[in-house]
Input
Amino acid sequence: MGDYSRDEWTERKIKWELKIQDAENEIKKFEREINSVKLITNEERIFYLKRALDELDTTLNPSERNKIYKDAIEWIRWTRLNDDNPKIKVNFI
Output
């Protein structure tokens, strides 16, 4: 994945997986705000993920945050490549 060694990628993946778990809680809050369980596209999911990460983590500098976004987006798209249904449920993996 990208320009990282396997160990570096694993370390980065673990870091942002923890952030994604927090972001998933934020997504659930957004879902409750609209008062419905709806299906969202990957692009919508990425939008909510970025919004949640912005709200949760103000300690990262912009380049670190952008790298987390890029890694998370790549992971979301990679895990959904063979998905027959282009829409996925809000509940995370």
About this structure: Strands lie at 39-41, 87-89. Residues 84-93 have pLDDT under 50 and may be disordered. The first helix runs from residue 6 to 34. Residues 13-89 form one domain.
